[in-house]
Amino acid sequence: MAGAKRRKKSAVWRKIHALRCEDIKLWCVRRLPILKWAPSYNLKENLIPDTVSGMMLAIQQVPQGLAFAVLSSVHPVFGLYGSLFPVIIYAVFGMGRHVATGTFALTSLISANAVERLVSPASNNFTTSNNSGVLGLSDFEMQRIGVAAAVSFLGGIIQVAMFVLHLGSATFLLTEPVISAMTTGAATHVVTSQVKYLLGMKMPYISGPLGFFYIYAYIFENIKSVQLEALLLSLVSLVVLVLVKELNEKFKRKIKVVLPIDLILIIATSIGCYCADMEYTYGLEVVGHIPEGIPAPKTPSLNILSEVVTEAFGVALVGYVASLALAQGSAKQFKYSVDDNQELLAHGLSNVIPSFFFCIPSAAAMGRTALLYSTGAKTQVACLISCILILVVIYAIGPMLYWLPMCVLASIIVVGLKGMLMQFRDLKKYWNVDKIDWSIWVSTYVFTVCFAANVGLLYGVVCTIVIVIFRFQRAKTLSLQNMKEVECKFKTEADCESLQQVKIVSVNNPLVFLNAKKFHHDLIRIIQKDSASTQPHDDLNKGEQNTLLNPVSNGNCHGELSLQPCPNERCALILDCSGLTFFDYTGVSVLLQIYMDFKNRSIDVLLAHCKASLVKAMQYSGNLGSENPIFFESVSSAIGAIHLNRNFSKLSDHSEV
């Protein structure tokens, strides 16, 4: 027994000594992406656009930070801290170059449930005059931020644990319809929570199952208590915000810097409220005192972690799902890669570390990320520059926001959620591509509205898995086609070299979100492997040499396309879709991506044995833009078309000579 322990210990020491400095360096670069892009940062090309984007981002971060802090049921100043520390942490550990982390409406709404449950105004033993000694705030306010910080801390710990367990690869279960429906439903909840500020009503905090309907029932029962001044100011703010943002979007190519309407509205309404003394004359609710500076770090309230487990899981899952979708979208648009697992670490640390600085839960927001797109940001330097300006607000400008009306903050929140609410337009797309995805979207949205975002997300994932398993069980297994007859029909001495550049892949399984990425990866890998090996001319007599039969298997992958176009003949790929019994939106998207990627590399992609529903879905989802037909009834007709086109090309070349 002792000998076995010694051998095990010596093996561990051998592994430790085998570590090289190069291995440690690679690990650091992989876990600290800033070490990869910062040394190669181009000051001349990137600094100016990053600076402009950072300034515009800070202008949007400040009102959103204040508003989302109120949404989280804590003092507004803690929203400013939440717009500072998580941004710095993500810039170091995150891979999304255009992802704007900070306060987030959905995570704020989830953490508010814990704050109101554990430190409700009706049950608190503190008064606003009890000074805690921290920033001049009351013990009641510090108790509330203590709960929100505990939710952020535990939520971040859960995300880091998911990173350690490599659960980032499980994100293929989060399909686009589920994420879209969940975020849209959560945005509906956020808008509902702001109605009381828009109307200037005093109402108790309402949450829980069917809380969405109870809120509107309370509003209609007490409709006479609506404050007309607040309602009028809210309507004016909403109209101005929507109108100016639409004009900014319409003329963004003609104007270099968009009009910061959020900042202008805050300044204008604050000055107007101060001059007219609306707080006392009309009873208009304002933000109130915002203390200067940043307090010393403090450990979150660990004794209440067991009481905020539900909210912490909601913050961890909802925040990560929404943030990952934005990171993957930016990576796709700007042609770089994002590691799903590394994003878990980045967002986990962006919640854990800031929780020591009185921060509410954080995540990436769609509106801020879209702002970085539109203003031409290049790297995370834009977010770091915004942090400098937020520091100026915290130490100098913050107290001037005392007179900012709460109804204006609520208007900014509602208009900022426009992008999420506009996802209702996706319903038409899902209906035309796959009606089951449409039904998943609708039912997930209903569950999110009736219960909560985390419940809707869980329902969407479970529902998707059950439906896919059911569809896989009902799928018919078709036998593989014998390709020898097809090849013998066109195999002549003159055409052997031409047909050698034709690759045939038979798709033998349904193509859905579970196996779409693996299908793409396997297709690229097989063609690369086949292209790398030069086949002797005599081997063309064997039927299998020109046929690549690859059954699709389930899984996840991260493959990149690196095919090179053929020097002499234009290569062609034929996908035999006889075994593709059903598909979903993700599967169609992957087929379109394969078609466009191969087309950009001068490789023709033809699809044989396609069902009418697949042809319709591909034609609807993307612009194929091909002069020649790409859908064929059989593989033989596809090869015949290739043969005919190449003979025509040769004839044209001879005629030109």
Automatic annotation (TrEMBL):
It is a multi-pass membrane protein. GO terms for biological process: carboxylic acid transmembrane transport; iodide transport; oxalate transport; sulfate transmembrane transport. The keyword Ion transport applies. InterPro entries: SLC26A/SulP_dom, SLC26A/SulP_fam, STAS_dom, STAS_dom_sf. It catalyses: bromide(in) = bromide(out); oxalate(in) = oxalate(out); nitrate(in) = nitrate(out); hydrogencarbonate(in) + chloride(out) = hydrogencarbonate(out) + chloride(in). CDD domains: STAS_SulP_like_sulfate_transporter. Signal peptide: none annotated. GO terms for molecular function: chloride channel activity; chloride:bicarbonate antiporter activity. This is Anion exchange transporter. It comes from Platysternon megacephalum (big-headed turtle).
